[in-house]
Amino acid sequence: MSTSRSGNHPSGRPSVAGKRTVHGSGSASKYSRDSYVGRRSSSPSARRTIGGSSVAHDADDAARMAGGTGRQGAIADASDTGRYSVAPDPSSTGRYAADRYAGRSSSGRPSVRSGRTNTRRSGTSYEPLFDESADGIGRSIRRRRALTRGVIALAAIAVAIGGVVFFMSNAPITVSVNGNSIDLSGAKTVQAAFEAAGEPAKAGNLVDVEGATLEEGKGYQFSFAVNGQPGTDPTSPLKEGDAVVFSDGGDIEEESDSTDEPIPHETVDQGYGPIHMVDNPGADGVKTTKTGKISGKTVTQTTAEPQDRVYRRYYPDTGEDKVVALTFDDGPWDTSTAEILDILKANDAKATFFTVGNRIDDSTADLIKREVAEGHQVCTHTWDHAAGSGQGVNLSFMSKDEQREEITKGMKAISDVTGQEASKVIRSPGGNFPTEVWMNVEDLITAEIGWDIDTEDWRKPGSDAIAQAIKCATPGDVILMHDGGGDRSETVEALKEALPYLKKQGFRFITIDELMQYPKKDI
Ligand SMILES: [Zn+2]
Asked: CB neighbours (10 Å) of residue 449?
């Protein structure tokens, strides 16, 4: 308790007196506890445990030999109790009791145990008697004389060391001040060097909130660097050979009352490309208005510039990597999804499926599970393709609440089947994702994905046309296809032709998450 109080000293640095008090009381209680423990360890009850058997043994033996009842043990214990409870000089009683006991024991059949027990008793109880003897006093005086001689010797050594330290600390040193050598014989600090060099720098001024001088020379006295390292404390010590460079002190601004106001940040759309994500979260700026306490002048300054929130569209920079992202919308679909999964597997291709939530039911759940199991990325393409309001496949035709629900319900449909949290990457129906929709749902998603190549497979242009579109891929492209929403047999046929072709060209087929690992192209 005392310790924690000293730790909580308001200054955070317990006073010396406080420390002593705490330590002292701690020691006192420790010692008193120790002496208590000491007593207990050689107390009758303790001895009963250690020596008790020997006492009983001896007593039994004695009783057997004397034909008594073995009460000696009890007598010895009683005398012990007396010895420890009577102060300050109960030892004689104890001694005699112990002697009597020992005598009786030895006159009976002394055991090694009883001898050991008695020795220990005499060790604690006889010592004070010896100390009071003439021999004890003489020894004590000799001990004190030896101690005195030791103290004198130590004091002499301390004085000698002190003298050397005193001499060393007072020996002059030479330092360089702005390139000139200066000897310092008294204080050896930065401040002393400044004074010894005749104040080689000019003090700054006290200025008002507009920067106009109120009082000359009332600013910072100087700024400095020692051996090239800028310093702040002029009482810093210097040593032989240090190079100090002083420069003029800075101004100090008058005290002022100030108020801060936020400067709202702006929202900007930036860039082009198939990956859409918030690039910079943005932050409000700060405008500070202050009124000088001396000058009474009021100024307003921007103390922190606002940071724009950037809605960024970008192309991934895949460098030399020939990678493309195949994406399939509007599934899962009873027949085509499985066929597409087979073709992907045959070509070591990973793809991303943008699923429609209300198409995920008992009959299609296995397709979603298979997509996950085979390493594809499963994302939402909203709950009902944004058709819930009956106004078409466009989130921006829906209320803000409906927009959010389209995404949360779409994600839940996936996680209900997979048992895992759904990807926060989405594709908006029809690719309609204006910034106002984005701002409304941005906390629900990490990215919205567009495309570089639209195969227009949903128009059913024939498998050759779809295959040609896929074959035109360049590194980093996102390719839009559909595994649902109608008969996708043309898409299936096109993939059978185009994937082996691209693979032969050295392309790999990766997921959107993998594509997003690449840096942004700066366009
Ligand atoms: Zn769609």
From this structure: 25
